[in-house]
Amino acid sequence: MPEQPGKAVIMNLVTNEAVKCQFNPNEYTLSKTNDWTVKAKKGMNVGKTDFGGGQPASLKLQLFFNTTDTSEDVRKQTEKLWDLMMVDANSKNPKTNKGEPPRCRFQWGKGRYFTAVIKSITQKFTMFLDDGTPVRATLDVTFQQYTDEKLFDPQNPTSRSEARKVWVVVEGQTLDWIAYQEYGDSAHWRYIAETNNLANPRELRPGQVLNLAPLP
């Protein structure tokens, strides 16, 4: 079965709630900096350079939301992203035991993801109804890397570094297709169904979150 084009997804890793982007971004920017210190030495053109550690990578993108066809307040579409900026009592810092905004995962395409926290959101409204209700908005979102992992590290059938992985279902995907992408064999759809307690494996819905455990 050919791969189906999917929407980019931002998933709350505390609640496992998936926010599917209404439109995929046109582009995104990845950046990372390292700390280097230079100790000057007399009589030398170049001093000694010491590595001071790496800084978290950043992912910047712009998302577009439009509800002109339904006249619905576009903020109902974007509020879940804003929730990822708010303190969640269920997400606590282990050192301070105080609540903090939840970790999230940006995922787009087969097995590519960026585990992060959202550092900033700028929302711009560009169209309104006669009563002032906004129906079109663009959001500039900056994610900050949370874990030390390769940027958009591919999840492939031979990689078993994680105890389990998360797959966010997009429209058109089937369980046997997901099994082939993850395990290299579509017959393992039964294993996914069993580990996720799926009553009807044929009825996957967009945004549904599946846990993909390593094969026994």
3D architecture notes:
The structure is a single chain. The protein has helices at residues 75-83, 175-183, 189-195, and strands at residues 9-12, 18-20, 28-31, 34-39, 48-54, 58-66, 88-92, 99-100, 104-107, 113-128, 134-145, 165-168, 209-212. Strand 9 and strand 10 (113-128) form a beta hairpin. The strands form 4 sheets. It has a 7-stranded antiparallel beta sheet with strand order 2-1-9-10-11-6-3, covered by helices on one side. A two-stranded antiparallel sheet has the order 4-5. It has a two-stranded antiparallel ribbon with strand order 7-8. Residues 1-5 and 155-163 have low confidence and may be disordered. Helix 2 (175-183) packs across helix 3 (189-195). It is mostly beta strands.
Q: What is this structure's SSE topology?
A:
Blueprint: E1 9-12, E2 18-20, E3 28-31, E4 34-39, E5 48-54, E6 58-66, H1 75-83, E7 88-92, E8 99-100, E9 104-107, E10 113-128, E11 134-145, E12 165-168, H2 175-183, H3 189-195, E13 209-212
Antiparallel strand pairs: 1-2, 1-9, 3-6, 4-5, 6-11, 7-8, 9-10, 10-11, 12-13
Helix pairs in contact: 2-3
| Mass-distribution shape | globular
Q: How many individual helices?
A: 3
- What is the CATH domain class of the largest domain? Mainly Beta
Task: Note poorly predicted spans.
Answer: 1-5, 155-163
Largest sheet: 7 strands, antiparallel
Q: Termini separation (Å)?
A: 26 Å
Keywords:
disordered N terminus, 3 helices, 216 residues, 37% strand, 2 domains, two-stranded antiparallel sheet, mainly beta, 7-stranded antiparallel β-sheet, 12% helix, Elongation Factor Tu (Ef-tu), domain 3, Membrane-bound Lytic Murein Transglycosylase D, Chain A
